Amino acid sequence: MPLQRFETGVRMSRAVVHHDTVYLCGQVAEDRHADITGQTETMLAKVDALLESVGSDRGHLLSATLYLKDMALFEEMNRVWDAWVPEGKAPARACVEARMASPELLVEISVVAALAS
């Protein structure tokens, strides 16, 4: 399979597929003023939509890196994450505290997944 880029702009592509692997750009909340629960829910909904648009889904996640504005939000974010990840299909994952690109952002995620076959 040739390398494919989706929704490509000057700075980045929203998704890149190479062989059977999907790489998503960082996804953030739809509403940047929501609390951590709301931001995590809409961020993961964006991941779902983007994965589906390229032929994958959350059941095919390989890895995820989560960036939190403050690790004090870790448990609340994990409640949403744990309900979202299909049982028995948790990806390799890292979660780090980071300075966000916009001050109202509380969480961002970068995902790698396999194509659904």
UniProtKB/TrEMBL annotation:
InterPro entries xref list: RidA_CS, RutC-like_sf, YjgF/YER057c/UK114, YoaB-like
Pfam families, per the entry: Ribonuc_L-PSP
CDD domains: YjgF_YER057c_UK114_like_2
SUPFAM superfamilies: YjgF-like
Family indicated by similarity: Belongs to the RutC family.
Name of this chain's protein: RidA/YER057c/UK114 superfamily, group 2, YoaB-like protein
Lineage, opening ranks: Bacteria, Pseudomonadati, Pseudomonadota, Gammaproteobacteria, Oceanospirillales
